[in-house]
Amino acid sequence: MIEVKNLVKRYGDHTAVDHLSFEIEKGKIYGFLGPNGAGKSTTMNMITGYIASTEGTVVIDGHDILEEPEEAKKCIGYLPEMPPLYFDMTVLEYLKFVADLKKIPKAKKASMIEEIMDMVKITDMKNRLIKNLSKGYRQRVGIAQAVLGYPEVIILDEPTVGLDPKQINEIRELIKGLKKKHTVILSSHILSEVSAICDYVLIISHGKLVASDTPENLGKLAAGSNNLNLLVKGQKDTIRAALESVESVKEVTVKKDTKSTEEGVYSVTVGTEENTDVREKVFYSMVNADCPILEMQSKKVSLEEIFLELTESEKKDKNPEKKNSGKPFFKTAADAENYLNEKDSGESEAEENGSDEEKEEE
C-alpha cells in the first residue's frame, strides 16, 4: 500500500529523518513509535506530501507523492497533531466544506457526511460551533474530516494528546473500528496506546528505524525476556548444578543476595528457551536438591522496556566517544534479539572479570 525508500529530511546541518525505509500493508493498524523529536511528525508530513523530502521516495498505491501528488493524496486521509479546524464553523458546515475540498460528488456528499458523523459519534454536535466543543469532540471532528471520501489510508499524528482517560479510550475504540475499511498509521510516543491498538510497530529514534515487528514479537527484543528470577536458600554449587540439569534451561547465574539477612540465600537468574515454561521443573529440581525456593518470578518485558532499550542503544551510538560499529538496525525481532543477547553476554563477562579482580585484591 505504501512504500517508503531511503527517506531523508534535512534542515541545514540538522537531519530530522535519516534514510528511513519501510512498507505498509493493507488492512492493518501500524504504530509509529518514538520519543519527542524522533522525526515522527516530519515523516508523516513527507508521506502525506505536506512537506518535500530532501532525498528518497514515497509511493502510495503505485503513485509517487512528489511526481503524482494529486493521485497519491486521494488515497490518504490525514489528521495532524493539531486538527485543521475552523472554530467559527459548525461541525456540519465544516464537514461540508472539507467534502467540497475533496471533490466528493454532490449526490454522495450528504449521505457520506451523515454516515461518518454517526461512525465517529458527533451527530448530536453537528449544529454546534467547533469552538464550543471539548477537545475530545474536536479530535472526533478531525478524524471525521480525515475519513471523508473513504481514502484507503488514514494517517493520525498523536491523536490522543491532551485528552482525558475516558476520551482516550473512546478515540482508541474509534481507531480500532477504522481498521475494518482502512489501513491506519498511528504516530505516538505513548507506549500503552501503541501496544493496545496496533498490529505492527515501527520504532524510530533520531530519525532512524531501530526496530519493526508485531507487539508480540517485540517482546523478545529486550534483554531477559525469557528469564526466570529466583531467590533460593542452599549451597551455591548445588543450586547451580540442579538448575543446569533442567531441560530447556540455557544458562544459570547464581549470586549472593545482598538484601537477605539469612546465610546461604542466593539470587538466581535462569535463562530459558523461547516460549518455554520451566517453573514446575525448576520447583521439583530444587525440592530434590533440598534447596527451598523463597521467591520465583517470570520476567515480563513491557513495550516500554523494549522502547527504552532500543532508543538508549541509538543514543549511545550517537555519542562519538562510545561509538563502535555504528547504530544497530533491526529489521525484525530476531535481529534485535541477537544483538541484545551478544550485548548482555559481554556485560556478564565484564561483571565476572570485575568480581575476580576484586577477589584477588582481597
From TrEMBL:
Compositional bias annotation for Basic and acidic residues: 312-324
Xref: CDD domains: ABC_DR_subfamily_A
UniProt cross-references to InterPro entries, sorted A to Z: AAA+_ATPase (IPR003593), ABC_transporter-like_ATP-bd (IPR003439), ABC_transporter_ATP-binding (IPR050763), P-loop_NTPase (IPR027417)
Region (Disordered): 312-362
Top-level lineage group: Bacteria
GO molecular function: ATP binding; ATP hydrolysis activity
Regions of compositional bias (Acidic residues) in chain numbering: 347-362
Alphabetically ordered keywords of this record: ATP-binding, Nucleotide-binding, Transport
Domain ABC transporter: start-end pairs: 2-231
The keyword Nucleotide-binding belongs to this UniProt entry's keyword annotation: yes
Record family assignment: Belongs to the ABC transporter superfamily.
UniProt-recorded name of the protein: ABC transporter ATP-binding protein
